Amino acid sequence: MIQQTKRTLAEIPQRGIGYGLLRYLFNEPAVVPQAEPMVQFNYLGQWDNVSFDDADVSMPSARVLSLVDQVSVDPRNGRQHALEIEARITQGRFEIDWYFDDTILSSQEAQDIATRYSTTLDEIITHCSRATLVRVPSDYPDANLIDDELQDLINKAGAVPADIYPLSPTQKGILFQHLMSNDDTYILQYVLDIDGEIDISALQDAWRLMAERHPILRSGFYWDAVAGPLQYVSQEERSTWSVIAGGDDPMLFKRVMENDRSRGFDLETPALTRFTLLSHGAHAHKLIWTYHHILLDGWCVARVIKELFDLYDHLIRGDQPAPAFGGVYRDYIEWLADQGARENRPFWRNYLSGISPCVFTSTVAYQPATPADHAAYRFMLGHEQSRAIERFCVDHGVTVAVVFQRVWAQILAQNTGNHSPVFGWAISGRPADLDGAEDIIGLMTSIVPCTVDVAGASTVSGVRELQRRNAALQDEGHVSMSHFKSASGLSQEEELFNTVLVIENFELQDNLPAGDRYRLSNLQWVERSEFPLVLGLVPAEDFLIELNFNHEKFCVAQMADLQERIVLELARLSSLGNGNLEHDASLQCETIS
Predict the structure, then answer these.
(1) How far is CA 487 from CA 85, 353, 482, 490, in A?
(2) In what order do the strands lie in the sheet with 422-427?
(3) Domain match, 226 and 80 both
(4) Where are the alpha helices (DSSP H) in 131-238?
(5) Which domain holds residue 58?
(6) Phi, psi of 219 (to 5 degrees)
(7) Whole-angstrom Cα distance, residue 158 to residue 152?
(8) Among 23, 58, 371, 563, which residue's Cβ finds the most Cβ atoms within 10 Å?
(9) CB 229 within 8 A of CB 221
(10) Number of folded domains in the chain?
(11) Distance of alpha carbon 334 from alpha carbon 165, whole angstroms
C-alpha cells in the first residue's frame, strides 16, 4: 500500500500544479468534480519556524496557524469539505490540525476519526521500522527507472542504494570502452613510499571517512536501464585492503602491481578501489592505491592524498575531524542537467570546420618491443629550461599549457605536413559557475579537440592569441567524444586524432604530506590510455615529461627522438623576446613502467 501510494503521487505531473491552474484559473470543466470531496488533506511541509518582517517577531508555526484561524477566518465562512486535515512538521514533531463541518460531523465523530488515524499511523511506523527497506522508482527521481530495473539494480548492488543518478559524458565514454574491451586501460595505480610508522587500521578508518564525505568513492554502475546508464551510491564503503611483508623486494613490488592490474574491476559493484601496503619492517612501506578511472581524474588525486592523510593524522591524535561541507559529484551531474542539450550548440561545428584528421606516425623506424621496454618514457626537462619556460609565461602573460600546445602542434605539423593539426587536450572540466567545483572529488576532466595554426613563424602575440582562442574549450568541453567526431564530419569509426596533451595537476609532487611519525615521498603512477600516444607534463621546479605510448604502435627509440624534438621546440619558443636558451646536452632520460 505504501509503495503504491508513492507511485501514485510520483505519477502526478509537476506535483499537481497543472490541476490547480486548470480548475481554479481556467475553470476547466473536465477537472471540476460534480461534487466536492468529503475530505481534504493538506500537507504543509516543514514549518520549523515562521519569521515575520520584524526581526523581533518569530513564533512556532502551530501558534501562528492558531492565531490565523482565530483572527483571520470569518465565522460565517463555511467549509468546502466535511473534514479538512492540515499536517506539518514543526520543530521535529509531526502535527495535525482537524477541521470539520459541525452540520455534518459531530465532535465525537471527528474525534473518533482522528483517533483511528493516529492508531493507523502508529501501525505504519512500526511496520516500516521493522520491515526491510523497500524503494520504488520515485525514490530516485533522477534515475528514470521502472520497477523491474530498480529491483535488478538493487540485486546486483547487493543492497538498497543511498542514491542513483546519471553519468557524465566522460563516464559514459569510459563505460562504453570498458564494456567493449574490458582491459586494464582505465585502471590507474599510484604508489607512495612511507618512511616511518603507519597504522593500517587507522588509515582504513580515514578512508572510510573519505568515502562518507565523497559518495563517488562508494559508487557502482548499472547499464541495463532503457533510459541509459546510471551510477548508484552504496550505503557503505567497500574498498579492499591488504598488507604484504617483504616490501624491499623489487620483483615482489612489480609482481604485486601487475597482479593488481590484472584483477580488474567489476563496475557493477561499488568496490572500485583497492589498497595494498607493502611493508619492509616497521618503518619502510609502499602504499599502492589502485582504482578505476570512471571514479576519479588526475586533477583530484592530490586532493584525495592530502585529505586522506589529514584525516589519518586526526585519528592518530585522537581528534575528531571537522565536518566537511564541500561539493559532491552529484552537484556536477545536476549542473550538467541544467545546461540543456550541449550537443545542439554550434561551437564545435564552427571550431572544427575545415579541420582534417591528424594521425601521428614517427619518422624513426619502429623497433619491436623487448621485455625490457615499457610503455611509459619519462624524462626531466632540467631546472634551467624549466625556469626559462616559467619566465616566458610570466613575462608574456600566458600559461604553461598554451606553450606546450604550440610546441606539440609544431611537432605534429613537421611530422604530418598538416599546418593546422588537431590533437586531444585534457581539460580540468571544473565549471567556473559551479560553486566549489575545484574541490569536488570525481571524474570531471575530459579530452577535447585542440587545433593550432602553425603555418606562420612562432611569435609572442601568436601564443597569446592561441590562449585567447582556446580558452572557450574549457567551457564547451562537457560533451562526448562521439559529438566531436560528428561535429567534424567524421564517422564514429574514423580517427580525428591519435595524440593527447595532458597538463597534470600534481601540486603535491614536491610537497607530500608528513605526519609526526611518518613521511611520504616518491609519488609514482602507472596509467594506460585509449589513445596511442599521450604527452603528459607535471610542472614542478624541474618539469617532468611523460610519453605514454602503445608499444604495439610506437617504440622507445621513437620516444627518444620525440624527446629531442620537444626539448628543441621548447628552447625555440621560450627564447622568443629577450631570452636565449641553448639545448642542454646533459639531459638525463629514464624509462619506467
Answers:
(1) 57, 8, 9, 8
(2) 446-451, 422-427, 499-503, 533-538, 544-549, 376-380, 589-591
(3) no
(4) 147-157, 169-181, 200-213
(5) 19-131
(6) -105, 150
(7) 10
(8) 563
(9) yes
(10) 3
(11) 9
C-alpha cell at 154: 538493487
Integer Cα distance of 314 and 321 in angstroms: 6
Report d(CA 9, CA 19) in Å as an integer.
Answer: 13
Domain boundary among 79, 107, 131: 131
Place of cell 614517427: 362
Tens place of pLDDT for every residue, the chain, 593 residues?
A: 776 777 677 677 776 777 777 777 777 777 778 778 899 988 888 775 544 444 444 444 455 555 555 555 666 666 788 899 999 888 778 889 998 988 888 999 999 999 999 999 998 888 877 766 778 898 899 999 999 999 999 999 999 999 999 999 999 999 999 998 877 889 999 999 999 999 999 999 999 999 999 999 999 999 999 999 999 999 999 999 999 987 678 899 999 999 999 999 999 999 999 999 999 988 999 999 999 999 999 888 989 999 999 999 999 999 988 888 789 999 999 999 988 776 678 999 999 999 999 999 999 999 887 654 558 899 999 999 999 999 999 999 999 999 999 999 999 999 999 999 999 999 999 998 999 998 999 999 999 999 999 988 889 999 999 999 988 898 888 888 888 998 999 888 899 999 999 998 655 566 788 888 999 999 888 888 889 999 999 888 899 999 999 988 999 999 999 999 999 999 999 888 654 333 333 333 333 32
CB atoms within 10 A of CB 23: 15
Task: Tell me, yes or no, if the pTM score tops 0.70.
Answer: yes
Same domain flag for 205 and 232? yes
Q: Can you give the CATH number for the domain in which 551 is found?
A: 3.30.559.30
The answer to whether residue 1 sits within a structural domain is no
Q: Which amino acid is at 466?
A: L
Residue 523 located in a structural domain: no
